Amino acid sequence: MKVAGGGIRFRIMTTALVDPRAETRTGSRTPTPRDYVMCPPEHFAVEYVINPWMDPDRPVDVELALRQWEELKRTYERLGHSVSVVPAQPGLPDMVFAANSGTVIGGRVLGSRFRAEQRAAEAEHFRRWFAGNGYREIVMPSRINEAEGDFAWTGGLLLAGTGFRTDPEAHAEAQEALGVPVVSLRLVDARFYHLDTALFVLSQGEHPQIAYYPEAFSTGSRRVLERLFPDAVVADAADAECLGLNGVSDGRHVVLPLEATGLAAKLRDRGYEPIHVDVSELRKSGGGPKCCTMELHG
């Protein structure tokens, strides 16, 4: 298991000495306002196959996809979060999955470089959006890097997935561009082709908490996650297989696919408030709430 960057030894020691369960299971969860970037599915379609969820022979209802996306956006706004919208572009049916087009931490932007040529042009549209919205520290990667699809920020560590899309070398590139320590994790099940299909961050801070599906990861990566996050919420196969781990949390409210009922029950037990949304049409392309949502981390 590769661990890039400094500070990891301190994190492991801190986790071992302090049990976060004493606070989180008895205290109240506090949401924090978030800044999100989204792109409407105006040109959504399943025209090619780049993951096991996609089937071009299965009909797609673009109007339904738009309604589901609008409801997801309204959900964020009702929770007090801001949502910026990047215009959709013809010929880019997967541009709705904004999480794959940038990683932003502390004002620094690391753009994306897609493995599939069908999505390659998305990266430049998002780069232009960042440049036009005041971002000056923008790095476009030299290695394959599918952004928040494979990067999850805990507030102290950047968890980085590889195995199907993002190159392992992109993890070191992310550390240099963003100036944060990176922990590499290997995915081994093609259904969970991005990290954000198998893991998401529930709460950030000194003792961050995650939810994840262990079977999506290599043996060594599971051990790393167990050491770093002993109080993680562990999902089962049923919730993973409806992309229930493709969730979005503000520290209290957790936006999940409608079908992720078992995971929702576990989250309630930990003091979180699950909020279900229907993303069934977008799931035909292998996407869920997080795929549609890039977060601008301060």
TrEMBL record:
Gene3D superfamilies: L-arginine/glycine Amidinotransferase, Chain A. InterPro entries: DDAH-like. SUPFAM superfamilies: Pentein. Keywords: Hydrolase. Belongs to the DDAH family. NCBIfam families: DiMArgaseDdahMtb. This is Amidinotransferase. It comes from Saccharopolyspora gregorii.
